From TrEMBL:
GO molecular function: protein histidine kinase activity
Reactions this protein catalyses: ATP + protein L-histidine = ADP + protein N-phospho-L-histidine
Gene Ontology BP, a term: phosphorelay signal transduction system
Descriptive protein name: histidine kinase
Histidine kinase/HSP90-like ATPase domain span: 84-176
InterPro entries: HATPase_C_sf (IPR036890), HATPase_dom (IPR003594), Sensor_HK_TwoCompSys (IPR050482)
Organism of derivation: Coralloluteibacterium stylophorae
Entry keyword set: Kinase, Transferase, Two-component regulatory system
CDD domains: HATPase_UhpB-NarQ-NarX-like
Source taxon at top rank: Bacteria
Length: 178
């Protein structure tokens, strides 16, 4: 029996179930549709990390006008960065900021990019509600993804959470390990 037929049929329970299925399918479609751009690669050939972050922050300012975004890219820190490192840094910033916006109700997000000891340091600090107590458990794919991106390049991610906000600090070596 088709969903349309079940919804039009005379049995209210069957129509309710059909609507539940249709709503679930629509929700799943929307979730997958929203995920696809996050999985697609960003081409950093000809675009610096600083420019990509400027563009990203400008977009967020339009989408979230009630949130204050601060971006500080230390001069020279993002220049001549290999594309895979720029992409990893960009994705880590995106994930941390989106988590703060969607899940923590952040009203201020500070993004800082610097170089220290032959590594790119990316720091994202928000004033949201902090992470839930169970954030270390499996299922937090965004956090796991940030860590995996950094570790694949020989770096790492540290996350500190309190009752007022989260600090994500990623360290990415500027050069690949020999």
């Amino acid at each position: 029996m088709s969903l349309a037929l079940a919804r039009r049929g005379g049995d209210p329970e069957q129509a309710r179930r059909a609507q539940l299925i249709a709503d679930s399918a629509a929700g799943l479609h929307a979730a997958v549709h929203a995920l696809i751009p996050r999985l697609q690669s960003t081409d950093f050939d000809g675009t610096s990390l600083a420019d990509a972050l400027d563009e990203q922050v400008a977009l967020w300012r339009q989408q979230y006008p009630e949130t204050v975004f601060e971006l500080c890219v230390e001069e020279g820190s993002a220049a001549d960065l290999p594309a895979e490192r720029a992409l990893a840094a960009h994705r880590i910033v995106q994930e941390a900021a989106i988590n703060a916006l969607r899940h923590a109700g952040a009203r201020r997000i500070a993004l800082r990019v610097t170089v220290e000891d032959a590594a790119l340091l990316v720091e994202i600090v928000d004033d949201g509600r902090g992470l839930p107590a169970d954030w270390h458990r499996p299922g937090h794919y965004g956090i796991r993804g940030m860590r995996e991106r950094a570790e694949a390049l020989g770096g790492g991610v540290e996350i500190e959470s309190g009752h007022r906000g989260v600090r994500v600090r990623a360290r990415l070596p500027l050069q690949a390990r020999p």
